[in-house]
Amino acid sequence: MRQDISARIFSIMARMGIQPSPANYELLHEIISGNNPVLRDRFMQLGNAPSPTDLAQLAEEFLPHHCGQALGDRCASAIKAELEQLIGSLSKVQQDVDAYSSALATATANIDTAEGDRNAIRSQLKQLADATVRQRESNTSFAATVQQRLSAITAVSATLDEAERVKFTHPATGLHNRRSFNKHLADRLGSGKMPEDFSIVLAQIGNFRIFETGNMTKIKTQVLAHVGAMLRKAMPAHVFVGWIETPHIAVLTDSTEHSELERLASIMKAALLPVFEDVHRRLPNYLPLTLSCGACDAYNAFSLADMLEKAERALIDAEKYPNGRLVIFDASDKSQGQRHNYALYQADDERAKPVR
């Protein structure tokens, strides 16, 4: 399927005269896969020959990771402009303070030499009052200017935050995406050591390929949104949950307890059951959706790459069994020579026989 999509992407690029760049490839992949219906609609509005400028604007909005430098440069320029205006306002305030100080000094000196002349003293007091009003107005204006500049800088900061969020979010599900998954794995190795209390749970939705046909794009978008909403609501806040495409779902947790992995798999199954039932009601002539889960903990792997590979192998074994089972990789059983066995768990948490 991945090769079919790639062939379609390059065919569309050639037909529409689109430059085959990484950003354009990812744009078309998001459109064809149905992962981002808003992007698809925006792309269709561009017509049969979108310009490089139009495509660059779409990439900037929907794929900010490809435009990070441009966005960063613009945000930096915007902040610089706001700070320059703030510095200008500070200079104006300093001038007003100096003028006010000079007016105070002049009035004080004139009063000292007035020798009881009431009119002269009254005139100096009026000048002091006028100078004080001007200074108060200057202070008020400066406070408003500072607030405006801070609001503008906050808006720029929010733009950067949103770009960062979009960069690591799967658009159709609202879950973490593959890029975020890779980043979280890399962060686990920040100390340079293999994390000890850590596990990976991978999940695959069986029969999901029914949505890969062209007339299923809208339904797929709705199903993905439903999947994301249910998982975000049901899964514990402290675990990472991402839609990483291949396999579909990844869960990262700071636990190696098999009971905890079973619990997470059970939560996923319960959360997605209404989604599967809804799809079956809408598409009764298709095979029902199922969920298979495979996992590996830090004690059964020597690196994160090894853990991920073993979780994928456990998932492959899990897909051989009815819906609701979790396969956890177990390297302790060497009875099959060089081939590792898996410990198989049922959905009701009862231990089943190892896969033979």
From TrEMBL:
Alphabetical list of Gene3D superfamilies matching this protein: 3.30.70.270
Domain of life, per lineage: Bacteria
Residues annotated as domain GGDEF: 196-331
UniProt cross-references to InterPro entries, sorted A to Z: GGDEF_dom, Nucleotide_cyclase, Rev_trsase/Diguanyl_cyclase
Stored SUPFAM superfamilies: Nucleotide cyclase
Protein name: GGDEF domain-containing protein
